[in-house]
Give the backbone structure.
Amino acid sequence: MTASQKLPKKVIPIVAQTSMFAAQNKIYPRATSGYFTNWRWIMVWITQIIFYGTPWLQFGQRQAVLLDIDAHKFYIFGLILYPQDLIYLAVILIISALALFLFTTVAGRLWCGFSCPQSVYTKIFLWIEYKIEGDRATRIKLDSKKISVKTHYKKWIKHFIWISFSIWTGFTFLGYFTPIQHLFDGILSFSLGPWETFWISFYGFATYGNAGFLREQVCLHMCPYARFQGVMFDKDTLIVTYDEKRGEPRSGRSRNVDAKEKGLGDCIDCSFCVQVCPVGIDIRDGLQYECISCGLCIDACNSVMDKMDYPRDLIKFSTLNSAGSSEETLSNELESKAPQKVSHPILRPRVLMYGGLLLLICIAFVVSLSMRNSFMVDVIRDRGVMSRITSDGAIENVYRLQITNATEETQTYRISVTGLDGLSISSNNVFMVNPTSERMVPMSLQIPDGSVSSGSHKIMFNIQAIERDEKISEKSTFIMPR
């Protein structure tokens, strides 16, 4: 083949690559002050005093709140729950979920902005960062410099405090599952077990990563609540809104400019509302699922309105419902900005439904707890020997009764049996069980041979707590051989 007959080279087309994900820029929240900022700090103090203080509370001679998984006992002040009582824990979770649904329907995502652990710890970590590295502009300038010991020593200090705080948080969290005094003594004596060390490190690392680095990414991409909370919103749910009719057209200006004369809105386009937002959104673009209803944009905007001598509440908590509004879908109303005249009726069908269901479950929960017995009994037949004939000619069946004392005092129990004429207990029928303990007691029942027909006969064990005058009856069977 000659050179002129050579095949042309294969042409490879150049394909432009498009990223499927938008680039994420680091958010540097600006410090602000005001009504909602103060309430956020109040909730930080309340939640953290409860979280860090509860494991140290004592109830009698034990930790007041302890979910002791190893011992299969959950202590909640005077209430002691066993594996048989897991239904109560499930009901507590259902009550918590319904309460969150009810609160969301009425007031939107205030839980996310004021009480959610992710928001609370992010607020604490940001405060530490602000105190050490400085305000927003200083932090941005610091991050733009080349990393060195001279320029970034403040960051090392910040991370040291973050890690120390995170380890303390992991230690406290584990204190709800292992006696916290035992953990504390183990740390002081350097005798902490490997699993305890692992879980403290694990929860500490989770706090450090989520609050120090992921921050708003947890709310935007990891928390499922951000995705489904919209189904609990309606036109009367309180949300953070921007008054577009009053604020537009926005434009920067000095304080001496007459906005009305120039046909301008009250928004001076300072972007303070964006700079203070912990999730980095612009509330002026309308309601977005990323908004956690923290109200910081309201404080920032109100401070600017005060300086400009404009009325407050250009950004405020409001609803999408207004007098005489048309019957549009909620999604269309979210795209149109907040109405001027709004109402916020509390008693509406969805609120009544959540509230009524929550009330019924709470009443049932309290009634069930008040009627709960102070002990539990399980009757187990001896499967090794179904029945046997004793030396005196009686028919004997052997059982084991597992008695659980759910009180914190030693209890005495008396056992009797009914269901067959002539049936009697041939073993001891009075037993003592230590506080919050279980005891397996053998029980031998006898009946004269020939007094009843052969086969299986239903009987009833009656167990009475002598000190408390409580009684439990458990069914079983007596086997009469052929």
About this structure: The chain is about 40% helix and 20% strand.
